[in-house]
Amino acid sequence: LPAFPTAAEEDDGADAELDTQAMVRAQNQKKKKSGGFQSMGLSYPVFKGIMKKGYKVPTPIQRKTIPAILRGRDVVAMARTGSGKTACFLIPMFERLKAPSQAGARALILSPTRELALQTLKFTKELGKFTGLKTALILGGDKMEDQFAALHENPDIIIATPGRLVHVAVEMKLKLHTVEYVVFDEADRLFEMGFAEQLQEIIARLPDCHQTVLFSATLPKLLVEFARAGLTEPMLIRLDVESKLSEQLKLAFFHVRGDDKPAVLLHLLRSVVKPQDQTVVFVATKHHTEYLKELLTAQGIRCTHIYSSLDQTARKINIAKFSQGKCPVLLVTDVAARGLDIPMLDNVINFSFPAKAKLFLHRVGRVARAGRSGTAYSLVAPDEMPYVFDLHLFLGCPLVLAGAQEMPAGEGWPYAGGVLGRVPQSLVDDEECLLLTDHECSLELRSLRRVADNAHKQYLRSRPGPSPESIKRAKDLDVSQLGMHPLFSARFEDTELERLKFVDSIKTYKSKATIFEINATSRTPASTVMRSKRRHDHALIEKFQRGQQEKRAAALKGQGLCPAPSKTQDGEGEQEDLQDVFSNVGGQKRKRGRGGEDGPRKKPQQPAQ
């Protein structure tokens, strides 16, 4: 009679199966040419899902990160938005889990927002189509009963937001002791949005031996401290750190008054942006999204909007409208937009300029992805000018003024660092007339504008302040010398340009004489006093005017607008801290004899300057 296999025979069978899988991977890696997913030695279901998705060649961050994660290392990866970070942690996860199991959840993916979690779920189902792994989605705003039922089915993967996962874990007394693979997606935002306490609660429920992977666009000090305490000999992989923006991204900065922003936005959407392009407009508050949605709809521009407190069902409907092209314009706030994955996005418009340089990178990083070109337009009010200087300080490139400087790279716009210019007043006036008519005919529009104005005042109170040095540079900038932005000047004929320049010169004209000196031959006491005062202060006036001329000359030469960037900006971790925390720093250019990913570090020939 056949007997049950003994424990020794079972171990031999398991070892034989592992040896067979290793041989298959080695043979697959040997046959295929290096540089692609074939060379990573992936199992057939995972590789088939990658090919079905249409991926042929891994991106630089995938080429560096996936092998390190497959070796079981704790990894902290930094790369520009849109570089394929999601596949970096999904492919090793599928390879590690291999097949469904009834033991419980073995992988946990934490996302800062619901939208990012939904995008990750969609990508997980597409990429892991042939693995048979089950996934549970735990999000705030959905029914908890459904989430309880999903967890009772023993999913292999849990994709969740921290707040709701902690709530569900407490209610169900969930221990998560079977989890062996943990991902912190957009880790910088997880900590910036105040999830540190929830993250510590989740980590306390995890087993001691598990692999942790962090993906982040930036590396704040708080994240470095977390890596120091919670990761085992983590490896830091940094790509595209020096070039923070995509080479395919064009930047344009428009200096406008705050009250003229709706008119300029309307002109951009109507005359500059192509009708078939998908455009995301970032605003300061949810009240601005409601006001601008009503305003654009009244002007015949199809648009939709989302914000963090919007009903979950309405959010899904509005995102679907935009993704499917039914509405080419999406109005969003920063919190609601985090994690939106729209691969065919063409333009980003900063209606409200971000107060932090990293926030600007997160916004504009949604365009010019995967080799596509894109444009980021920014409407800059006078009180937002210091933030523009902060941004260029962070990027390490000078701010170019339209009409005052020659473009450092190529001729005209687009210049890599963006050009700051004015919008022709005639265009603003034309759009203002239409908007004024709409407001006069609509009580709802007037009410929404009043609410948006009040919300903007509250936003200004809570907005982080710029650096003192940038405030000083913004004050020293002579806006009257600012020319028309090349984007608009290219649309006018020479005669029209001359007319606009003449109108601008009238608008900026300021008489040197006071009202008491209009009649030069007058002998009134007031005119006599003013003439004597001018004679007395003549030397001081001459000195001040010479200083103004020197500043304008410096602007023409491109000097003084943006100093050299410092080593650490916006709370970035110090280089010494990184070397102390991370056992290996990979992905950077070789400097001072540093080896590759696994290579030994050579001793520097000379001390760092």
TrEMBL record:
<feature type="short sequence motif" description="Q motif">
    <location>
        <begin position="35"/>
        <end position="63"/>
    </location>
</feature>
<comment type="function">
    <text>Has RNA-dependent ATPase activity. Represses the transcriptional activity of nuclear receptors.</text>
</comment>
<keyword id="KW-0347">Helicase</keyword>
<protein>
    <recommendedName>
        <fullName>ATP-dependent RNA helicase DDX54</fullName>
        <ecNumber>3.6.4.13</ecNumber>
    </recommendedName>
</protein>
<feature type="region of interest" description="Disordered">
    <location>
        <begin position="557"/>
        <end position="609"/>
    </location>
</feature>
<keyword id="KW-0694">RNA-binding</keyword>
<dbReference type="GO" id="GO:0005829">
    <property type="term" value="C:cytosol"/>
</dbReference>
<comment type="subunit">
    <text>Interacts in a hormone-dependent manner with nuclear receptors.</text>
</comment>
<dbReference type="GO" id="GO:0016787">
    <property type="term" value="F:hydrolase activity"/>
</dbReference>
<keyword id="KW-0539">Nucleus</keyword>
<feature type="domain" description="Helicase C-terminal">
    <location>
        <begin position="264"/>
        <end position="415"/>
    </location>
</feature>
<feature type="domain" description="Helicase ATP-binding">
    <location>
        <begin position="66"/>
        <end position="237"/>
    </location>
</feature>
<dbReference type="GO" id="GO:0005730">
    <property type="term" value="C:nucleolus"/>
</dbReference>
<dbReference type="GO" id="GO:0006396">
    <property type="term" value="P:RNA processing"/>
</dbReference>
<dbReference type="InterPro" id="IPR014014">
    <property type="entry name" value="RNA_helicase_DEAD_Q_motif"/>
</dbReference>
<dbReference type="GO" id="GO:0005524">
    <property type="term" value="F:ATP binding"/>
</dbReference>
<dbReference type="InterPro" id="IPR027417">
    <property type="entry name" value="P-loop_NTPase"/>
</dbReference>
<dbReference type="InterPro" id="IPR000629">
    <property type="entry name" value="RNA-helicase_DEAD-box_CS"/>
</dbReference>
<dbReference type="InterPro" id="IPR001650">
    <property type="entry name" value="Helicase_C-like"/>
</dbReference>
<keyword id="KW-0547">Nucleotide-binding</keyword>
<dbReference type="Pfam" id="PF00271">
    <property type="entry name" value="Helicase_C"/>
</dbReference>
<dbReference type="InterPro" id="IPR011545">
    <property type="entry name" value="DEAD/DEAH_box_helicase_dom"/>
</dbReference>
<keyword id="KW-0067">ATP-binding</keyword>
<dbReference type="GO" id="GO:0003723">
    <property type="term" value="F:RNA binding"/>
</dbReference>
<dbReference type="InterPro" id="IPR033517">
    <property type="entry name" value="DDX54/DBP10_DEAD-box_helicase"/>
</dbReference>
<keyword id="KW-0378">Hydrolase</keyword>
<keyword id="KW-0597">Phosphoprotein</keyword>
<dbReference type="InterPro" id="IPR050079">
    <property type="entry name" value="DEAD_box_RNA_helicase"/>
</dbReference>
<feature type="domain" description="DEAD-box RNA helicase Q">
    <location>
        <begin position="35"/>
        <end position="63"/>
    </location>
</feature>
<dbReference type="InterPro" id="IPR014001">
    <property type="entry name" value="Helicase_ATP-bd"/>
</dbReference>
<comment type="similarity">
    <text>Belongs to the DEAD box helicase family. DDX54/DBP10 subfamily.</text>
</comment>
<dbReference type="Pfam" id="PF00270">
    <property type="entry name" value="DEAD"/>
</dbReference>
<dbReference type="GO" id="GO:0003724">
    <property type="term" value="F:RNA helicase activity"/>
</dbReference>
